[in-house]
C-alpha cells in the first residue's frame, strides 16, 4: 500500500496503524481523528506520517482508507468520505455489524474507480482507546470481509492481502450471514457476561475465582460501544437471545424437575462442541 | 502435618498431593484411590509415600484427611471414614457445595477427639483427572472453609494453616452463605457458558474469537461433575438462575423497545462492578 489512511484513533484504528507500521505494510500512514492530542502522540511515536483532524485532507491520495469509528457512525462517515476518495481507492471499515454499513455504501452514487469492502477483525479487548492499541492485535485472529455480488473482486483481493499482512486470517461472508453469526458468538456472549456480573454482584463477588473472571472478562468492555453494536444488530441479537432464553428455560426445567440425565446429556453436547475450539 | 491422606486422585486430590509434596507441607503423604494405575503413578512419581485402594488402611495414623471425590459422593464416604479416623484427626473435603456435606458430618456420632471442617478451594480447571494435577493450582487462589458453631476452633486454625502453606488465601463462611455465593459466581456462570456454546453451535462457531473462547472456557468442563454439583446446590442455583433470567428478560425488553439509554445504564453498572475484579 502506498498510502494507508486510518480514520479514528481508538483501539482498532491505533492497532491497525501500529501493525501496518511495524510490519512495513504501508509506505505512508495518514491518521484522521478529532482528538488532536492523540494525533500528536501518533505522530511523535512514529506511527503516522501525516495526521489531521480534517477528513478530506486525510483521504487525499490514499489508496486504502479504513474507517475505525463506532459502528453506528460508519454510515454517515462513509457518505461524507465517498465523494473525496482518490481514484482507485478502496474504502473499508472495522464495524462489528455489517448489513447496514454495506447497504449505506451501496446506496452511495456509483463511482467506477473506487470500491467499498466491509471488514470486521474478530480481535478486540475489553480495553479501548489508542493507549490499548497493539501492533499484534490481529495476529492469528480472524478478519471477516463481507463483499456482495456488486463488490469488485480485485478490491477484495487487495484488502485480503492487507489483513493477511497484518497477521490475520481472512474469511469472506455475506453481510447478513456475518451479522447472524456474530450475534451468536460475540454479541450474545457480551450481553450474557454483563448479566452474570449483575447477578454475581454483592457478597458473592468476594469469592469469585478464575472461572468467573474468564466468563465475565468481556463485561469490562465499554458499554457505549456495545449498546451501539446491539442497536445496530437488533434483530439478529433478539433471535440469538430468544434461543438462549429457551435453552436456559429448558435446563431450568430439568433442574426443577430433577431430570439430571436430561441435563447431563445437554451439557455433554455443549462440552463436545466447546472442546473442538482451542 | 505428620501424615496427610488424600482420598481420590483426580484434579484436586492430585494437585493437593503434588502441592503438599512440592512445598514440604506433610512429612508423609498417603493416597487412597480405586484406580490402581493412578496409585502406581503417584507412587512412582514420588507424590505419595503410601498408596492404597483400601480406605481404612489409608486413614490409619493420618493427622489430616481430605476427601477429594465428587460432591455427591462425599456424605457417604465421610460416614464410611468417620469411625476409622485416628484420634486427633481433622477430616475435610473439597466439595463445591457445602451445606449437605456439613450436615452429614454433623449427623455422625460425636467423637470428641476428631473434627470435620468443610473446605472448598476456588481453583479448578476445565481439565480433570490426575494428569491435569498441578502443584501450583492453589497458589494465589481463595480457599473457603465452612466451619459451624460446633466446629472446634483449633481444627479450623490448623486447616487454615495447611491451605495457606499450599499458597492459598483462606476465608471462612457459613455453609449456606457459601452455597448461595458459589451458585452465583461459579455454578450459574458454568450453566450460562454451556448455554452460550449450545446457541453458538453451527456455522457461527467458525468465526468465534477470543471473547467467545474466554466466555465459554468453563463449558469444556466434565458434564458429570457439574451435573452432580448443580444437583447438590439445586435451590440456590434455581434462585440465581431466576434472577439471571429476569435480568436478561428486562434487557431483552429494552432491546425490543429500543430503550437504548436504559440498556446502556444497566451495562454501565455491570461494567463498573466487573472492573473492580482483576
Average predicted confidence as pLDDT of chain A: 96
What is the molecular shape of chain A? globular
Strand order of the largest sheet of chain A: 3-2-1-4-5-6
Instruction: Identify the most extensive interface between protein chains.
Output: A-B, 90 and 90 residues
Structural class of chain A: alpha/beta
Number of helices of chain A: 11
Topology pattern of chain A, helix = H, strand = E: EHEHEHEHEHEEEHEHHHHH
For this structure, the quaternary state is: homodimer
What would you say this structure looks like, in words?
In chain A, the strands form two sheets. Chain A has a six-stranded parallel beta sheet, sandwiched between helices. In chain A, strands 7-8-9 form a three-stranded mixed beta sheet, with helices on one face. The model of chain A has no long low-confidence stretch (mean pLDDT 96). Chain A is built from eleven helices and nine strands. Chain A has 278 residues and is of the alpha/beta class. Chain A is globular. Chain A starts with a strand and ends with a helix. Chain A has helices spanning 11-22, 36-44, 55-59, 74-81, 99-106, 153-165, 175-200, 210-216, 223-232, 234-256, 260-276, and strands spanning 3-7, 28-32, 50-52, 64-67, 90-93, 115-117, 119-121, 142-145, 169-172. In chain A, helix 4 packs parallel to helix 5 (99-106) and helix 7 (175-200) packs across helix 10. The interface between A and B is large, with 90 and 90 residues.
Amino acid at each position: 500500500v502506498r498510502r494507508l489512511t486510518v480514520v479514528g484513533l481508538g483501539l482498532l484504528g491505533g492497532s491497525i496503524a501500529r501493525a501496518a507500521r511495524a510490519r512495513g505494510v504501508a509506505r505512508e500512514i495518514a491518521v484522521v481523528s478529532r482528538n488532536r492530542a492523540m494525533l500528536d502522540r501518533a505522530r511523535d511515536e512514529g506511527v503516522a506520517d501525516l495526521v489531521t483532524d480534517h477528513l478530506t485532507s486525510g483521504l487525499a491520495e490514499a489508496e486504502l482508507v479504513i474507517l475505525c469509528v463506532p459502528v453506528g457512525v460508519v454510515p454517515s462517515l462513509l457518505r461524507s468520505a465517498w465523494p473525496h476518495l482518490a481514484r482507485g481507492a478502496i474504502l473499508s471499515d472495522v464495524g462489528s455489524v455489517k448489513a447496514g454499513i454495506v447497504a449505506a455504501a451501496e446506496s452511495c452514487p456509483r463511482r467506477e474507480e473506487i470500491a467499498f469492502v466491509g471488514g470486521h477483525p474478530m480481535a478486540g479487548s475489553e480495553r479501548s482507546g489508542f493507549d490499548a492499541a497493539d501492533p499484534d492485535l490481529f495476529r492469528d485472529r480472524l478478519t471477516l470481509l463481507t463483499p456482495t455480488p456488486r463488490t469488485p473482486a480485485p478490491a477484495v483481493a487487495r484488502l485480503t492481502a492487507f489483513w493477511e499482512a497484518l497477521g490475520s486470517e481472512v474469511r469472506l461472508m455475506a453481510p447478513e450471514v456475518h451479522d447472524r453469526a456474530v450475534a451468536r458468538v460475540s454479541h450474545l456472549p457480551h450481553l450474557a457476561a454483563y448479566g452474570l456480573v449483575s447477578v454475581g454482584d454483592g457478597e458473592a463477588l468476594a469469592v469469585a475465582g478464575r472461572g468467573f473472571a474468564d466468563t465475565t472478562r468481556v463485561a469490562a468492555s465499554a458499554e457505549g460501544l456495545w449498546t451501539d453494536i446491539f442497536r445496530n444488530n437488533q434483530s439478529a441479537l433478539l433471535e440469538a437471545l430468544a434461543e438462549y432464553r429457551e435453552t436456559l428455560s429448558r435446563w431450568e426445567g430439568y433442574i426443577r424437575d430433577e431430570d439430571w440425565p436430561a441435563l447431563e446429556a445437554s451439557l455433554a453436547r455443549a462440552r463436545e462442541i466447546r472442546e473442538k475450539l482451542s
